[in-house]
Amino acid sequence: MIRFIAKRLGSGLVVLFVVSALTFFLLYISSGSIARNILGDQATAEQVAMKEHELGLDQPLPVRYFAWVGDALTGNLGASWFTSEPVANSLATRIPVTMTMVFAAMILIAICAALIGVAAAVKRGWVDRAVQVGAILGDSIPGFVIGVILVTILAIQLGIFPATSTISPDSGAEAWVYSMTLPVIALLLNGVTGGAQQIRSAVIKQLERDYVRTLRSRGIGEGEILFKHVLRSAAPAGLTVLSLQLIGMLGGVVIIEQIFALPGMGPLAVAATGQSDLPVVMGVVMYTVVVVIVVNLLVDILNGWLNPKVRVS
Amino acid sequence: MSDSVETAAAAAAPVPPAPTGQSGTVVRSTVLRRLFRNPLGLIAMAILTTITLLAALAPVIAPFQENFANIAKTLAAPDAVNILGTDSAGRDVWSRLLYGGQLTLLSAVLCAAVAIAIGLPSGLIAGYYAGKFEAVSNWMVSILMSLPGLIVLLTIRAAFGPSVWISMIAFGILISPSYFRLTRSAVQSVRNELYVDAARVSGLSDRSIIARHIFSVVRAPIIIQTAAIAGVAIAIQSGLEFLGLGDPAKATWGVMLSEGFKNVYLTPTLLFWPAFAMALTIGALVLLGNAIRDALEDADKIKHRRKKMHDAEHAASASAAKAARKTLAAVEAGTEHHLVKVTNLGVGYPQADGSIKKVVDDVSFHVDRGEILGIVGESGSGKSQTAFSILGLLPDTARIVGGAIQFDGNYTVAPGDEKVNQDRLSKLRGKRISYIPQEPMSNLDPAFTIGYQLVTPMVRVLGISKAEATKRAMKLLSDVGIVNPERTFKAYPHEVSGGMAQRVLIAGAISCEPDLIIADEPTTALDVTVQADVLELIRDLQRSLGVGVILVTHNFGVVADLCDRVAVMQNGRLVEDGPVRDILRNPKQKYTQTLLASMLEGKTPMTMLVSSEKEPVA
């Protein structure tokens, strides 16, 4: 098991390295006149040249990349070109907001999708049809449009929830819950409808397996067969679905935070993108890839725990 | 939006069954006809056609240019000139919606085209030739799939500036794995089909095999996938523009949504129209994809519709049949008492055309304690279905279409019942009736140890403690000839051999001291030498426990070796039954004679094997 984890961790690090290199070269090759953009049209040629030297832009790209890697390994991701705030600092203040929302949404998705999906697989009938229709609706309406609808109706028209949030890391738990309820709902609806449908088909597939019939023949009750055996065997498929949803959600949350004006990664990413503040963009990409790698590793470990065959090999 | 991106790619990945015919046009025309018959598919196509036409004709229909601004008339309510009102810059919402549709749809087409251009050829090559190319592609796919779409698009935007086209090309590359995986698995599934081999042998080049045989298999799944991807592309492009990172000079639904959201306090309707257009388009794409899938997956829907019709018919004939059966039951009651008594049993499955296909028809037999009854027949003769109806473990779709089953004098299928009485059977299963399956490996849950799977039924059914059940499980394992019970007890199913797994299943079947064991081809999946051991084990156990056994098999050798009486089945009917000796010596029916001839003549009888040396068991 330890070798298994080490192997997955190793391949995760390779992915991190590859993605960081690709992103770095992509960002810096295509943006020609970075210093000019920062200083504006009024700046003289000397000022631009000085700025370029200051930012290290006069050195060859590979040298800059390895310098960046060296700094990154010590936790220094550079500083914003516009605000001069260290990128690592901006990430550290914003990641808690975003991750709180993402994990709250994921946990709720896992619970709701599993319950609804299992109910649809076992009961069939109207629950099943509702899940099918829900999946089509969920696929049809993009998550951020749901967010816009929610904020327009529940916050702006009815005033039940705040349309924009004012939370900071030291606001109380109550303020966080109040501010985050709508964004989390906007984040999770699509995940629940899509996840329920896929968990449904995974459960149906397991219910048709031979060992389920044998368990029945041994006098084991339907409830125990379902919750102890079938769900456990269907779980790897469910986990894969959930991990893919989480990857997608890292992008989706950017828009949701923008809609609800939450001080998470979203506004930082959007502002940096708009201004081509490349060190910040680099930092955002790195944070995303690290989260993805960690999540995939956790899913692999969970699958290993669920499936003794993987665990042994 | 992007949370659905990767899931959509994953969700669409399972390949629908490939159309069977080789003549592509025939397959396609029937699929198209089914598609047009499906109301949802028809509606989806109508919506998409309308939206495409409106967008294409925007320069003709739209009353204003997309960016024509009437500064004097901002955020106006709908009137005769601006039928949907104006936005904050005084631009006509209706015109912008039309032009926006043009750009939005074109960008989605571009994205799908890029994704197909990359994913299809690489998937074909990886699936057909496999090797290094496949390994490298798989690795790249796993990287691409672990990147959130929107974050990548933000990076591209930071690098290349706001261009719909560049971002859609990038997204096309990012989502190309969904076509790659689809194509690769479709190709892999047909690569080794006989007709592809035949084409290869007959000298067709790889290229024409791919073009002629393999491309026809992936065509339909790709259309389905494209519908999904176009929807995802529209969503993510709009999301990017909603963030204000789109090209402000161009009208798209996303830009309009962003503009509407800025004025949400003043004119919420500005939000409504682009959101509506988007949801309508994506929804139609999703429905179209589903409709094509349904059309391909044959007449599942038709079955549903016809079933209602059939139910009405069936009810009428059923009441007549019920009356007839009642009289039968009256005659049967109070006659001789058997452990199991099956009377005129019929089992059937409702078909697509509304009829019921009978797989068991008018079958009667009985079994007593201490007796082994063999049910013999070819595959498809209904012998397993008969066995499962005694256990009450028929598939959900099965119907009892006639007859009755009594266990120890009580009806588990009463005359006139459509279904097995699960209330009664759930109390009998495991405790008094048990089951030995055919395929040992697939009948153990791979996620639990063998010990757990032996102990739990005893705890549940007999109500004994876990410790006691463990002690009994050890004894059972050694009773069924397992040399090292402790090790097997702790092992997972994949850690033991097929023969051992079958012994474990037999131990499970006798663990709660049943009165009747139903063994469904218990040796078919095993090696010949292990078969003999397992048969001997069943016979020994039957003698020492005095249980009744129903042994389902296609092998007369097994019957001769083990059974007291035998029932021969063919096409769902019982053709002959009686004591084994009589049937073997003097088969009356032609079918039994043929079966016997094919089993015994010129072969070494199975009985010889029983005396062969035992396989050492761990």
From TrEMBL, chain A:
It is a multi-pass membrane protein. The chain crosses the membrane at residues 12-30, 101-122, 143-163, 175-196, 237-260, 280-299. It is found in: Cell membrane. InterPro entries: BPD_transp_1_N, MetI-like, MetI-like_sf. Its main location: membrane. Keywords: Cell membrane, Membrane, Transmembrane, Transmembrane helix, Transport. PROSITE patterns: ABC_TM1. It holds the Pfam family BPD_transp_1_N. One of its GO terms (molecular function) is dipeptide transmembrane transporter activity. Residues 95-303 form the ABC transmembrane type-1 domain. One of its GO terms (cellular component) is plasma membrane. Belongs to the binding-protein-dependent transport system permease family. This is ABC transporter permease. The lineage of its organism: Bacteria, Bacillati, Actinomycetota, Actinomycetes, Micrococcales.
From TrEMBL, chain B:
It is a multi-pass membrane protein; Peripheral membrane protein. InterPro entries: AAA+_ATPase (IPR003593), ABC_Ni/Peptide_Import (IPR050388), ABC_transporter-like_ATP-bd (IPR003439), ABC_transporter-like_CS (IPR017871), MetI-like (IPR000515), MetI-like_sf (IPR035906), OppC_N (IPR025966), P-loop_NTPase (IPR027417). Residues 101-293 form the ABC transmembrane type-1 domain. Its main location: membrane. Pfam families: ABC_tran, BPD_transp_1, OppC_N. Residues 340-596 form the ABC transporter domain. It is found in: Cell membrane; Membrane. This is Dipeptide/oligopeptide/nickel ABC transporter permease/ATP-binding protein.
